[in-house]
Structures are given as structure tokens and as C-alpha cells.
Design brief:
By secondary structure, the protein is an all-alpha fold. It is built from one helix and no strands. The chain is rod-shaped and about 55 Å long.
Amino acid sequence: MSPRSSEGNPQPDIYVGLLFISVGALCTALGFLLWELSRYGYQLPG
């Protein structure tokens, strides 16, 4: 096992940053998809 630091706050690493980048990319892609579908008359259900 890796040693734990004596501090109570774990520091975010590069993988946390990549996680936020990937979530942002997914949200952006979803926005572009909905924008493109709206050109064809698609409406969100609900």
C-alpha cells in the first residue's frame, strides 16, 4: 500500500483534471448534438 500523508486533505492529481475535461467534452458534445437535431425539428421530450 502507498503511504498516506498526515494531512486530512488529499490533493487532486492529474486524473481528476482529466475527469473534469472529459465531462466538459461530453456536455459540449451533447449541446452540439441537440443544436444539430433542432435544425431538423427535434424537440426534447417532456
